[in-house]
Amino acid sequence: MEPTTHAPATPGFSRCALAGLLLAAAGIPASLLADFSWESTVGIDLAWSPAHVATYLAVALAGALALGALTRQGGGVRLGKWHAPLGAWVVLWGAVAFVGAVVFDRWWQAGYGLAAGIWHPPQILKAVAFFAVLAGVWLAAAPRRATAFAAAGGLLLAMIAVCTLVAAYPNRQHAATFYQLACGTYPVVLTALAAAGARRFSATAAALIYTGLTGAAVWLLPLIPAQPQVAPIYHALDHLMPPPFPLLLVLPALAVDALLRVCPGRAHAGRQAVECGLAFFLVFTLVQWPFAQFLLTPAADGWFFAGGGRHWPFFLKIDPRAQVMFWPAPGDEINLRSGLVAAALAVLAARTGLWIGAWMKRLQR
User: Fold this and answer.
1) Do 301 and 307 form a contact (C-beta atoms < 8 A)?
2) Is the omega angle on the peptide bond into residue 222 within 30 degrees of 0, that is, cis?
3) At residue 115, does pLDDT exceed 70?
4) Dihedral, CA of residue 100, residue 71, residue 360 and residue 140, to nearest 10
5) Where are the domains of the chain?
6) Mean pLDDT, residues 320-348 taken together
7) How far is CA 211 from CA 187, 189, 216, 294, 362, in A?
8) Percentage of the chain with pLDDT > 70?
9) Using an 8 Å Cβ cutoff, are 307 and 295 in contact?
10) From CA 51, how far away is CA 30, in angstroms rounded?
């Protein structure tokens, strides 16, 4: 009688480790929002500022938990003598890339100064590292609990919002670039969540996680006393400046869930991409356009919405009239041509998300 052989067990994360990964992943966009607020209020970009330290700790925790998932034997993805879930390898790559980006950034600032631009090469490498860590956590959550999968997707939405924050000020939300940027990014995550999530409303849950995390920054950061410490000072504050209010992604996410999970059809993936992309474009535009108008009115000038055109970085010189108006740019108006471009980007993003979702479902098996 031949001995029975068993396939090697697939290594994975325990519930506690997965919870730790989600905590670390949440710390990345949360600390970056705090960093934005710190630099907009205080203005001194220290390597060991509280926000930066929080980012270091979040990446270190994610990297340590991913490192703990390595085993000498078992299933998963093999690299040399080590085996680990795919998500762990992606998280580790992101953590190593972040360390390299921090060293690169110190060198860059020493050579070019702080006025080298927002998206200089070290910052781009940092953004790639952050997305890698968050994507790795998302992959680690995929074969586990549905709630963790939706939460990790919501953190990815928050990371997209952080990277596009400057373009998402309410004053810019009647420009074609804003809608094209949103349509080309958010549907990727939302459709992947709806396609691969175990629950009917995975995309909606993720959008709520994004809203809660970003909203918490809007409501809590102004409770911390702070003041500008460098000149010039055009908008003196005595507390940290809140970031812009979160985008209304919940309604387009609900539309995507409805198309893919609540009332699913047997349509081809291409047709599903068209339906989801157009649904995102139409719903997002219809709700965000009037909401942007509201955010520039005195009715939004309160602790909850933090709008009314009152919150600006201390170093930004801006006419008081421009603070409460939209900033039109030649060639950046919403018209038939720019709207079609935004809709096409949403369809392409949805198709990418559907492909990612299908791949993640195969990965779970």
Assistant:
1) yes
2) no
3) no
4) -70
5) 12-141, 145-365
6) 92
7) 16, 15, 8, 18, 29
8) 92
9) yes
10) 9
Give me the pLDDT at residue 266, please: 59
User: Which residue, 122, 116, 87, is CA-closest to 103?
Assistant: 122
Question: Are 250 and 190 in contact, with CB atoms under 8 Å apart?
Answer: no
pTM above 0.85, yes or no: yes
Closest CA to 154 of 19, 330, 29: 29
In what helix (H) or strand (E) does residue 79 lie, and over which residues does it extend?
strand 77-79
pLDDT for the residue 30: 97
The alpha carbon dihedral of 62, 63, 65, 70 has a sign of positive
Tokens of 97: 């890339």
Mean pLDDT across the stretch 339-365? Answer: 91
Q: Give the residue from 269, 288, 289 showing the smallest Cα distance to 347.
A: 269
Q: Enumerate the H helices of the chain as residue ranges.
A: 15-41, 50-68, 86-112, 121-141, 146-163, 176-183, 186-196, 202-220, 250-257, 269-295, 336-364
Contact 209, 251 (CB under 8 A): no
d(C-alpha 85, C-alpha 75), whole Å: 8
248: left (phi over 0), alpha (psi -120 to 50) or beta: beta
Cα–Cα distance measured from residue 109 to residue 135, given in angstroms and rounded to the nearest whole number: 28
* pLDDT value for 212: 97
